[in-house]
């Protein structure tokens, strides 16, 4: 049996990770590298998996969709919110919303990136195992 949620909203999402990024994370245009954001998305998704079953190891099997809406700048407060979109037998899909609070606009969050990531629970032999069990 699967449990499905079609989207995250303020009531269903949870803060998984919050950070600021440094000049070392910037590209030649002066904005944060997309790969740095992808890494944070993967970390936030794995943190979200702990609420399903904290005793399982999870691996990323797919970044199903990623949409970059706006750049991230040095000094932005970056918050990654997650919610479970689909819980299957051995896999879980997680929605990750990346929001920033700009230094010049404290208190106002802007969505900069959103992604759907799928994780698989694995046993000691590296093979898929049930998420719950």
What does this entry look like structurally?
The chain has 133 residues and is mainly β. It has a single domain, classed as Thiol Ester Dehydrase, Chain A. It has one helix at residues 34-49; strands at 3-4, 14-20, 57-68, 77-87, 91-101, 109-122. Strands 1, 2, 3, 4, 5 and 6 form a six-stranded antiparallel sheet that branches. The longest helix is centred in the first third of the chain and has 16 residues, at 34-49. The protein is elongated, with a radius of gyration of 16 Å. The two termini are 13 Å apart. 27% of the residues are buried.
What is shown here, in short?
This protein has 133 residues and is mainly beta.
**Helix-strand pattern, N to C?**
EEHEEEE
Mean pLDDT: 91
Main sheet summary: 6 strands, antiparallel
By CATH, the superfamily comes out as Hotdog Thioesterase
| Straight-line distance between termini | 13 Å
Number of strands: 6
| CATH topology group | Thiol Ester Dehydrase, Chain A
Q: Determine the strand fraction and express it as a percent band.
A: 35-45%
CA-based gyration radius:
16 Å
Assign the CATH architecture. Answer: Roll
Query: What ranges have pLDDT less than 50 throughout 5 or more consecutive residues?
Result: 1-6
Please count the helical segments: 1
Helix content: 10-25%
Structural class: mainly beta
Morphology call = elongated
**What is the name of the CATH class?**
Alpha Beta
């Amino acid at each position: 049996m699967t449990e499905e949620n079609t989207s995250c909203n303020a009531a269903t999402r949870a803060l998984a990770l919050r950070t600021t990024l440094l000049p070392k994370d910037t590209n030649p245009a002066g904005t944060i590298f997309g790969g740095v954001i992808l890494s944070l998305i993967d970390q936030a998704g794995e943190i979200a998996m702990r609420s399903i079953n904290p005793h399982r190891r999870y691996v990323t099997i797919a970044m199903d969709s990623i949409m970059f809406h706006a750049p991230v700048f040095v000094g932005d407060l970056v918050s990654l919110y997650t919610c479970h979109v689909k819980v299957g037998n051995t896999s879980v899909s997680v929605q990750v919303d990346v929001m920033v609070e700009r230094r010049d606009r404290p208190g106002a969050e802007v969505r900069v990136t959103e992604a759907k990531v799928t994780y698989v629970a694995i046993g000691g032999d590296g093979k898929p195992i049930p998420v719950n069990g």
